[in-house]
Amino acid sequence: MTIKKVALAVFVLALALVAKASAEENNLRLTTASGICDSDSPEGTLCVTRRQVQVENISGPCLEDDGYTLCLQGGRFRVRIGWVTPDGTRGWGHAVHLNNGSGTFWFFGPENSEMLVKVINACIPSLGNHWWVFWAATTNVQFELEVQDTTNTWLVAYLNDMNQAAMPVQDTKAFACP
Q: How confident is the model at residue 178 (pLDDT cuts 50, 70, 90)?
């Protein structure tokens, strides 16, 4: 083993030990691999709150012309995000469509993307027969991400608390396949 490899291995081990000590010192815990809180999540756990509700369906296809909406998977899914800063400033995330299944949002300026969102068609039995919603945010402001299936009345919302670093979410049961 070369000196560079040994040094790298020692550095990685040191980082792991510091991260473990820091997490134990601050009593930080992660919940499920999905990043979503569940009913057994202890207080102080880093995760996001997920709620699924039936809403009055907004008729017609998803339209992106307002600048605040992502229309994903051929317009089937309408995605929006609202945010609040510690001083009470509120706003809507500005949508940037990347492709049929994903896009980003920015809050404070177009040069600073705050979130990546993906909706994945996993409507085959071996993958669980659900539409998946994955997202990752690089912010600690409070936000609520809403994903609505425009073919029915279901909306899934994810809430990140104020001053909490947003956890990445991989919701593999976001919407049942028809």
A: confident
Prediction pTM value: 0.73
Q: Which residues of 106-136 are buried (b: 16+ CB within 10 A; e: fewer)?
A: ebeeeeebbbbbbbbebeeeeeeebbbbbbe
- Mode of pairing for the β-strands spanning 94-99 and 70-72: unpaired
CB distance 63 to 79 below 8 Å: no
Structural contact between residues 150 and 77, judged by C-beta atoms closer than 8 angstroms? yes
- Write the CA distances from 61 to 17, 57, 136, 145, integer angstroms: 51, 11, 26, 19
How large is the average pLDDT for residues 95-111? 97
Distance CA 47, CA 167 (A): 6
Q: Per the structure block, which two tokens stand in for 148?
A: 């609505």
C-alpha distance from residue 3 to each of 14, 15, 16, 26, 143 (Å):
16, 18, 20, 34, 46
Q: Please report, as a single letter, which amino acid is at residue 104.
A: T
